[in-house]
Amino acid sequence: MKLSETNKAWILLTPALLFLSLPAYGLFSAIWTSLHENGSFTTKHYRTLFQQETFWESIGYSVRITLLSTVLSLVLGLLITRAFSPFIQSTKGKLSIWLPMLFPHFVWGYIVLLLFEQSGLISHLLVEMGLISSTSSFPIITNDQNGIGIILTYVGKETPFVVLMLLPIYAKQQDGYKDLVQTLGGGKWAAFKDAEWPWVSPVLLEAGIILFAFILSAYEVPFLLGATFPEMISVLTYDWFYSGDWNERPLAFAAMIITSVLIGIMSFIAFSAMNRKRMLLTKGQG
Amino acid sequence: MDRLSKQKKIQFWALTLLFFILPVVFLFLKSVVLNFGFGRSSGIDFTLRGWETLFSESQLIQATLVSLGIGALVVFLNLSVGLLAGKALAFYSFKGKALIEALFLLPLIVPLLAIAMGIHVAMIRIGLSDTWIGVVLIHLVPTVPYSIKMLQSGYASIGTGLLQQAKVLGTNRWHRFFSVELPLLMPSIRSTVFLIFVISLSQYVITAIIGGGNVVTLAMIYFPFLDSAESTVLAAFSAWFALLPILFYLSVELLLSLLPYQNPWRTRL
Amino acid sequence: MTPSFITVEHTSKSFNKEAIFSNLSFTLNKGDILSIVGPSGSGKTTLLRCLAGLESFSTGKFLINGKNVTALEANKRPVSLVFQHPLLFPHMTIQENVAYGLAFQRRKKKERLRHAQELINQVGLTGYEKSFPYELSGGQQQRVSLARSLAISPNLLLLDEPFSSLDVRLRNEMRTWVRQLLKDQEITAIFVTHDKEEAMQMGDYVGVFENGQFQQIGEPEHVYHSPANAFVADFFGDHLLVDQETFIPVQSLFLSRSKPKQVGSVWEGIMKNKLHVHGHSLYQVFIEDLNQHVTVSSSINLTIDEPIYVSAHPDSVQTFTNQQQRNG
């Protein structure tokens, strides 16, 4: 018997769907744990969590760093791809711009340390050039309270990622649409808005959401480059998870669930902002 | 126009040099330079001691092998899942496809830490915690979504036409896969292998939670090194993280060249 | 009566309950070439894909040489399809491309290569064996594609507008050449096109396809001169449709400035455009009463938008042949 096309598709998708059960189970188990104590339902962990000042400080700090890193990476990635896509498409260009992708995040963090520490390369170079008197007058921008070192690391690592996502669009982009807009009397801005942005924005949105989610909850970089206070939420979570005090473990779960909810809200806002724009666009055409 | 593009070219290379290439070069230098001679008139002292110390650590060799093994298995599983799902998403249209595509992105959006903590208990129950199988499984979470995406676009760029043509010519599924799909998917497969291996190598926190300190990958010993080792050793260790994917990639390339239509001496596209 | 080589019986195909074609039947003898011609969207490509096995018929039977192949997958059917685009495997040489389908026939490798070489020679590409597809022109690529499909010695060869991506001059050369090749090798073939001239040139029989139905199947000349219905007559364009039952071939029409008296059928028309073909002046005339354009040869010198009478002898008025379907 011949299988129908739809059934064939589902058979091909089976291993991937099986894989999905892994993160799905993990997430639901985390939610369950955060809402139970000794087998019975409770919201106690959340109440405890919300009373912790460190938690709120950590969330605010994490979101600030995450938004800054994400937006900077997206903007830089977009600008670089727009300006240089013909060069990036050459093998040499690809290899050099994707060089940071070769390194784990924490190694890129270590490179940032080597460069930007008070005893790092840049500080020494500035002293050599006579711009600052000694390395100790170089500002502290790693393991600092503003998270500059973390942001530097993420921007350096994620900008190539954004370029990687955007490049196929710029490689395929037909100049026809742009030429059309311009022959119809539209300027450079109109050409960008009508012939470029509609293709680019969905990819930027996707990359933005992935980056936001990743940076908000990743552990390695803030562990390496963060300050002792405030801590990013992942570091706080990890501390709670592995603290000797078993009462703190459920807090770790609750903190991560709140983080997930935050990511969910963020994605929802981003998506609906874009869909609203799309709706306006289609209405405008009607 | 020509001058403009030349100018742009210079800008591009200046930018990549400054932000991407020089930092990496500096890391490699740092691993062989004891002292850059700042503040003194004396020259730069080269040394291979960092690398020697690094490779004299038996722990490092052991961890490298563990990382390679886990990475290879993760890559293999990724390719298996990704090729099948990528094909389905590229060539078939069915109800709920948009939903499925969105679902495949979810593992990248839900915090990995939450997933790992959530799975941890179940892993203990079925005896997979503290084992390399458990670690391989958890490494699938941040990797498989990328594989599916990359291989989906790989299949989409081949198009249905060539595959239907192959089918009409009377060849069976396996022969079609090895003679047409695989050779034409090679560019996507290469980037998948590379990226997935790097991601697997980079996982510290989820490896720590699921592996429980029993599965010692490179990432697991890197963090303790940060506090103790001297700068040349640490720089060498950091550089090792970048060399390993290249090494892995080259050996995979060697393996792939055994497949049909992969002879490097043939004229290529 | 000997059983037909190719038999298609009461087949239909629908997508999501929407019928693409229904209750379709025809037969072909070995070595026959059937051209299927029709406007785009008429379902002719879907029919071809069903015959190839890339899609399945919703109902009906398809027999080759008495064997029912309806349930077989595309790769198990003794049917080969040449697509609109050459679709050569870019990573294989010309020789590997042509020999591709032979991998699954029980022959020695040497024998397979010899057979592939034979076909390369036949399509006139000797010397290109080791070349890669991108080194060949569009016409050469399509010839390789044809050789590749012929290599597996299919019982039925399907061609889906194989020349449509070629330029006009090359297209004409290829038609003559391909038809000769198919005839020489006695290949049974179905050729799909939207070009009526190509259909008549390529086929022993022409099937006019519209609305999921054969409007008429027959020898090219017969279909051309005796259209079965208004659609066929209109599609070939060389007839003036008087009403749903009758038509007048254009060569029986003549133009005059004054209204002729002795003839029965006269219409008022307006000259819209002038063409020159084979040394004749052809006028495109719009007849308002019939809401039709008709192209008529004439020696009078007309200017654009000039009113003119179009007339025909009463005995030149013909009735459409009934719609019985012809077996090839």
TrEMBL record, chain A:
It is found in: Membrane. Keywords: Membrane, Transmembrane, Transmembrane helix, Transport. It is a multi-pass membrane protein. The chain crosses the membrane at residues 65-85, 97-116, 148-171, 197-216, 253-273. Gene3D superfamilies: MetI-like. GO terms for cellular component: membrane. Signal peptide: none annotated. The keyword Membrane applies. Its main location: membrane. InterPro entries: MetI-like (IPR000515), MetI-like_sf (IPR035906), Sugar_ABC_transporter (IPR052730). This is ABC transporter permease. PROSITE patterns: ABC_TM1. One of its GO terms (biological process) is transmembrane transport. Residues 59-270 form the ABC transmembrane type-1 domain.
UniProtKB/TrEMBL annotation, chain B:
Residues 64-256 form the ABC transmembrane type-1 domain. Keywords: Cell inner membrane, Cell membrane, Membrane, Transmembrane, Transmembrane helix, Transport. Its main location: membrane. It holds the Pfam family BPD_transp_1. One of its GO terms (cellular component) is plasma membrane. It comes from the Bacteria. Gene3D superfamilies: MetI-like. One of its GO terms (biological process) is transmembrane transport. The keyword Cell membrane applies. It is a multi-pass membrane protein. The chain crosses the membrane at residues 12-39, 59-86, 98-119, 131-148, 193-225, 237-259. It is found in: Cell inner membrane; Cell membrane. InterPro entries: MetI-like, MetI-like_sf. Belongs to the binding-protein-dependent transport system permease family. This is ABC transporter permease. It comes from Pontibacillus chungwhensis BH030062.
UniProtKB/TrEMBL annotation, chain C:
GO terms for molecular function: ABC-type ferric iron transporter activity; ABC-type quaternary ammonium compound transporting activity; ATP binding; ATP hydrolysis activity. Pfam families: ABC_tran. The keyword Amino-acid biosynthesis does not apply. It catalyses: a quaternary ammonium(out) + ATP + H2O = a quaternary ammonium(in) + ADP + phosphate + H(+). Keywords: ATP-binding, Cell membrane, Ion transport, Iron, Iron transport, Membrane, Nucleotide-binding, Transport. SMART domains: AAA. It is an enzyme of class 7 (translocase). It comes from the Bacteria. This is Carnitine transport ATP-binding protein OpuCA.
